[in-house]
Design goal:
This protein has helices at 2-54, 59-66, 77-89, 116-125; strands at 70-73, 94-96, 107-110, 130-132. With 139 residues, the protein is an alpha/beta fold. The N and C termini lie far apart (75 Å).
Length: 139
């Protein structure tokens, strides 16, 4: 009888450990999938940007066509390239890394394309109009 109780406890422990191991592995895979999707989206965007530039379309002209007080939000590779192009074109803009510093700008260009929806919601709560740098290609 004691053998069956011990066996039952061992089986229960095995199931619990197995579930925890699966849960942990599943969580890690989900994080890796999100990272993969983030970098794939960034890669596709940068490729699209390069092709557009080759065809004579300029992200800078899309920004100047906005004809508004521009604020660039984000400190990443997209932001660095965009700021360099805006500087070379003599376009005035404000650069910030914190959302709260965007208050007062007419439009904020969000350079973190993978988190745009989340950032847009927070900027809306602050009463700030925003656009994703990715969406500038569709204007």
């Amino acid at each position: 009888m004691i053998g069956y109780i011990v066996l039952g406890i061992l089986v229960a422990l095995s199931v619990i450990i197995g579930i925890k191991a699966y849960s942990s592995t599943h969580y890690k895979l989900e994080i890796e999938r999100e990272e993969h999707d983030k970098y794939l989206r960034l890669f596709k965007f940068m490729g699209k940007w390069m092709v557009a530039e080759e065809q004579g379309q300029s992200l800078v002209s899309s920004i100047t066509n906005l004809d508004e007080d521009i604020c660039i939000l984000g400190d990443n590779s997209i932001s660095a390239v965009l700021r360099s192009k805006l500087d070379k074109a003599g376009v005035e803009y404000k650069f910030v890394t914190e959302m709260e510093n965007c208050i007062g700008s007419e439009v904020v260009i969000v350079t973190d394309i993978s988190q745009y929806e989340l950032i847009q919601g927070k900027l809306n709560d602050l009463g700030v109009k925003s656009i994703s740098v990715e969406d500038l290609f569709y204007r």
